[in-house]
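User: structure tokens for Threonine synthase, please.
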Amino acid sequence: MENSGHLLRCTGCARVIEQRELKENFRCPECGDLYEVVYPSWSAGMAEIRKPNASAMRWLWKERCCSNTEADQSGVWRFREMLHILDDEANIVSLREGNTPLYELRRVAESTGIEHVFAKHQGMNPTGSFKDAGMTTALSVAHELGFDWVACASTGNTSAAMSAYAARAGMRSLVLIPQGKIAWGKLSQAMDYGALTLQLRTDFDGCVRVLNEVVKRAPVYLLNSVNPYRLEGQKTPALEIAETFDWEVPDHLIVPGGNLANSSALGKAFLEMKHLGLVTKLPKISVIQAEGANPLYRSLLSNSGETLEPVEAHTRASAIRIGNPASWKKAVRVIQQTGGYCEQVSEAEIALAKAEIGAEGIGCEPASAVTLAGLKKLIQQGKVQSNEKVVLLLTGHTLKDSDYTIAYHRGDLLKEGEIKDLRPEIELTRRNAVELEASADEVLRELERVAVR
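Assistant: Done. Predicted tokens:
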């Protein structure tokens, strides 16, 4: 395939290659690190020639919102001047992803003392998670390259997105999942979209190891987040956030930390926007992990991100149950470049934060709620000030893991030792279904009881 306006640069040794030189596992043969997409005409660190006009691009992107063409109606491909990864736009595979809402969280702002807290809800994408933004770009590349099969290892959201976009393109999809460690709401999506779904007797990282061997031995295109074209799509929510704020970026962007591609992609976007003159400053990008799946937090605490020791991941927030994140070096770089932080939060803190976001009427999957739990900790540490503007990235829809939500409100989710000092706050947020006789009097009595709470 001819080069389509971009190159690929190793994030370790800085070796630059063309697309046709990429290996099946997307890792540099020299040092083993991952690649990132760069645009020679304007990327930071490359030759500065033919940089696009920032004002013209802002105007064009806004105008496309009124267009009826499929590419323009996508919140990803609407920004295609930042995505020179295809030779032919006819190869775009889209489900009209992106253009997701930015909600103001008024109750959260009041309870935390922060004047302006917003949630960028990527769970409002077609398959219910942020993965759609990256899947439309990476699968479009696979489609243009002529692949019939695409594949991923997944804790749920990736498999749902990949299988949906593959079905849309008339391609076939292979999903490897860790047996018994996936939310059924997510697995059901992959099945519904026609994926060959295989449950392996291992964890997520074990699924990744098996898949890396598969793509070496069969013409199957890997669509996990090691694929640099995934990150190109996943950077577009940053453009949407900046556009919503009239190109004045927030002070803080707080992101869940699983495989760490999301923070990497968003950081890349803000750095590119600043380089092009679309924005004048960078937000602090912070990553929040669950205590039981916290390799990045441990790495930064022990050696400032120089090395990372994988952990055996344990958390009920299944989307971030990853002990050996592929994009950790990229995430470290983004945190350091933007002046952000990395924190860990407990299972109880995650569950409470999820209920508090739900009380705003929008809801999210458990992994998304680490952002609010992490914000609380950053406030306590004096790292977020009351007059600053904060955006929480919500990665998945609340229906992705309804069993988690039901167990929380029934009181079955958390063990006694996990609740600790949060019991009063948790009790206030729980709303279990109440069984009553079929009587109006009974219903009215219950209304009176609740009214005095």
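User: Anything notable?

Assistant: The two ends are 65 Å apart (CA to CA).
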